[in-house]
Structures are given as C-alpha cells and as structure tokens.
Design a protein that fits this description.
It is a single chain. By secondary structure, the protein is α/β, with parallel strands linked by helices. It has 4 domains: about 120 residues, OB fold (Dihydrolipoamide Acetyltransferase, E2P) (Beta Barrel), CATH 2.40.50.140; about 140 residues, Rossmann fold; about 100 residues; about 45 residues, no CATH class. It contains 10 helices and 13 strands. The strands form 3 sheets. The protein has a 5-stranded mixed beta barrel with strand order 1-2-3-5-4. The protein has a 5-stranded parallel beta sheet with strand order 7-6-8-9-10, sandwiched between helices. The protein has a 3-stranded antiparallel beta sheet with strand order 11-12-13, with no helix packed on it. α4 packs parallel to α8, α5 packs parallel to α6 and α8 runs antiparallel to α9. The longest helix has about 100 residues.
C-alpha cells in the first residue's frame, strides 16, 4: 500500500493511523506470540485488563525496562484465558512480575497514538517453566556459595516454646496456626511479624520480617496459605532465600498446599506442606520432649525401687549373717566346754589309776621287806598320798578355772547378756548399724535395741566426745 502514496501526498492523522493498522494486519495476519514480564496491571470494571509487557535490563522487578509495549485483554478474550489457566489448576495468575508467553494481535490505538497488543490466549506452561527455572537458579546459586544447608545445620531446640511467626497477620493461615498452638495447652510465647506474602514488594518485606523475628525466639515459622504458583513467587525470590540461609535461628516453612515447593522450602531447616502442618510440627516436638521427660521420671522411679529392694535384701542378709555368726560362736564355745569337761574327767581317772598302781607296788614291797621296810614304806606311802592328794586337788582347781574361763567367754558372746548389762545397739531406719555420731544427722530416725525391746527415736542434735571435754 505504501507504493500507492506519492511523495507529495499529505495524510491526515486518522488516515495515517488507518494505514498503520492495515499494514499491521497485512504483516501479521495470524497475530504473534510474545514473551515478557507483566507490569502495571489494571483491571477495569468492564472486565477489560490493561498492563505493560516489558523486557528488563537486569534480574528482578526493580531493574529498568529495556523495552515496553502496552497490552489490552478484552473481556471476551479474558474468559478464554481464564479457562486456559483453570485447566492448569490455577497455578498461574496474571499479576505484576509474572513472566508470560501470550498470543496477541498487533494494533495501533489511534486515540492514544500508541502501538499495542490485543491479547487473545496464553501459554501457562511457559510461566510454570520460568518459575521452576528461576527457582532452580536460586537454589543452585546458594548451593555453590555453601548457603543451601546453613540453616538446616543449626540446632533445633528440644522445647521451642518461643516462636517467631512471619506471615500475613489476620489471614486464614495466621488463624490456623494460632489455633493449633493454643489448642496444645503449652505455654508458647509468640512473636508475630506482619508481612506481605505476595506482590512486587513481598520479597523485601519477607526478608526483613525474618531478620526481625529471629532475635528473641527459639524458632522462626514462615507461612502462607495456598495460592497459584505465581502467587507464591515471592518465596522463590533470592532475597527471601538468603534471609533464611543467614538467619541465626532455625526457620521452619509452611507455604501453600501439599504439592507446592519453593526456594524458601529448599533453604529452610525443615519444610512442611501447609501452615497448619508446620504449627503441628512445633507442638509435636514439645510433646515428644515431655514424653521423654515422663519416661525418664518413670525410669528413675523404677531404679529407686530396685535400689531400695536391694538395700533391704542386703540388710536382711547382714542381719541373718550376724545371727548365724552368733549362733555358731555359741555352738563352738559349748563344744569347747564339753571337750574341756571330758578332758578333766579323763585326767582325773588316769591319775587315780596311777596312784592305785603305785600303792599296790609299795604294799608288795612292804610285805617283802618286813616291818622296817613296812615302816619306811608306810612313811613313803603317806608322803606319796599327801603329794597325790595335793596334785589331784591342784589339777582339779586348774581344770575348774579353765572351765570357768570358757563359760565366761560363752556368756560374753551372748548379745542378750550384753544388752542385759545396760548396753544398747543402735541402727538407722534402714537397718544400718550406727558406730559413730558422724553417721547420723539431726532429723534422722534411729532404732535402739535394749534387753527388753526397742526404742524408735529422732536425732535432735549430735556431739562427739571431744565436745564433752572441759578445758
């Protein structure tokens, strides 16, 4: 058509606009596919949507645009686009900062004097792929820098009762987590830090909120309810991932639905499928610690009962050993006494027999020797009889003394006789024999054994023998 315009032909603005539109229709009869980032989106009451599609010079929404073109999504095409998005379970939404690939017709808007794209369709797989690629790039970058597992290496407290809650205060996710924590009955101290969880400013706010919540708490919980993949894009942002990696406290995440995974989840100490699940995990950890404490208490009780039973058994055994020892000592003393008596009887009988034999021999000698010899023999017999009498009485007295000594030792070994002489035997409540004042303390119970019974007492004070001496 341009070849039909002569060099000196003058066009009106309307004619030029009409020629531009015809030229665009002829050049792009089937429209074009264009990829870029949504910026400055506006939704009109009529159902139309207006935004700019931009290419940026750098990474992130803060970078300057290198190229910009206006886009109009009329309501009649909006319904088709929404059906496309719904077929992907609404994982993609048209919001600022979202990378999209769309089909559009080129148009020159005469009243505004600008070239624009009339959007007719969208490719959701492109947006999902861009999100996944961005997430993978962030994760790989932190991994190369050694930051990916830094937060996971922090020690998670056994009893995380002080919780920093980073979320949109007042949201359904916020209410769900508070309900779980309060229903547990544990004394949680919750520090809430309100932040945006989607939109252009969300990454900066979330990163700042994580840093603010970290100082006074045991654990930081970062949570957001469900939404599309593009709604959750802030949690794939490098700023958020770095804030988690550098946080001085363990960070637990509960972002989106069960199937959603973000860069924040990859960097966190631990990630859970939903906000409710991450709150339940905190409650479970405290509960497990209490169960462990209860188990330890039960083990201590069992060990104490066993130790007490062992002590009682040992006390009974010592008492039985003492009784058997006393009985054995008395038995040995009685046997020694019987043996001494038998030796005494045997010694007396032997001496008598010897004396009779000597008397018989002397009598025979007297008969043979005659009167003189009889007189001498009689004298000698008298002397021998006297010596014999003295020796017998001496032997009997010696045996009697030995017998008395043995009996005395036997009586001395009898505990009842010892107690009967005014002595006493003192034991602690647990049966332990008390041998020194230093083995008991004021307030201890003791049992005193006397000859006719026992006395139960409580120590009021104690003094050793050195304290009773006067200077």
């Amino acid at each position: 058509m341009s070849s039909l315009i002569s060099a000196n032909q003058t066009l009106t603005v309307g004619e030029l606009a009409q020629m531009l539109r015809q030229t665009l229709d002829e050049a792009f009869p089937y429209g074009v596919w264009v990829a870029g980032e949504i910026d400055g989106i506006r939704r009109h009451d009529s159902g139309h949507v207006y935004f700019n599609l931009v290419d940026r010079t750098g990474v992130g929404q803060g970078a300057e645009p290198a190229a910009v073109i206006s886009v109009v999504l009329f309501s009649k095409h909006r319904r088709h686009v929404n059906r496309m998005l719904k077929s992907y379970s609404r994982k993609v939404t048209i919001e600022n900062g979202v990378q999209i690939r769309m089909q559009a017709n080129l148009d020159f808007y005469a009243r505004g004097g600008q070239l624009q794209l009339l959007m007719t369709s969208i490719d959701p797989t492109y947006t999902l792929g861009a999100i996944a690629a961005h997430r993978a790039a962030v994760v790989d970058k932190l991994k190369d820098e050694g930051l990916l597992r830094r937060n996971a290496e922090l020690a998670l407290p056994q009893v995380p009762l002080s919780v920093g809650l980073v979320t949109s205060v007042g949201s359904a996710a916020h209410a769900d987590m508070l309900r779980v924590l309060e229903a547990s009955g544990f004394g949680f101290t919750i520090t809430e830090v309100n932040t945006k969880v989607q939109g252009a400013d969300a990454p900066q706010e979330i990163a700042a909120a994580i840093s603010a919540a970290a100082e006074p708490v045991d654990v930081v919980v970062l949570a957001r309810g469900g939404g599309s993949s593009t709604d959750l894009a802030a949690f794939d942002h490098e700023l958020v991932a770095r804030a988690i990696a550098s946080c001085s406290r363990p960070v637990l995440t509960g972002i989106g639905h069960e199937t959603d995974t973000s860069a924040a989840d990859e960097v966190a100490h631990a990630s859970y499928s939903t906000p409710t699940a991450v709150a339940a995990a905190v409650v479970t950890r405290v509960n497990k610690w209490l169960e462990k404490l209860d188990g330890t208490g039960r083990s201590i009780a069992v060990c104490s009962r066993r130790a007490l039973a062992t002590a009682e058994h040992r006390t009974s055994r010592v008492a039985a050993d003492a009784s058997r020892g006393t009985t054995a000592a008395i038995g040995r003393a009685e046997r020694n006494l019987d043996a001494a008596a038998q030796r005494l009887v045997h010694t007396g009988g032997t001496a008598t027999a010897r004396a009779r034999r000597r008397v018989a021999a002397i009598t025979y000698q007297l008969i043979q020797a005659g009167p003189t010899a009889e007189q001498r023999a009689s004298t000698r017999l008298d002397r021998a009889s006297a010596r014999l009498s003295v020796a017998g009485r001496h032997e009997i007295r010696h045996a009697q003394r030995r017998l008395d000594a043995v009996a005395t030792r036997v009586r001395a070994l009898d505990p009842a006789r010892i107690l009967g002489r005014g002595w006493s035997l003192t034991r602690r409540d647990d049966g332990t024999l008390v041998r020194s004042v230093h083995e008991v303390s004021p307030g201890d119970g003791i049992v005193t054994h006397l000859s006719d019974g026992t006395l139960d007492s409580t120590i009021r004070s104690r003094r050793d023998s050195s304290e009773d001496r006067t200077p």
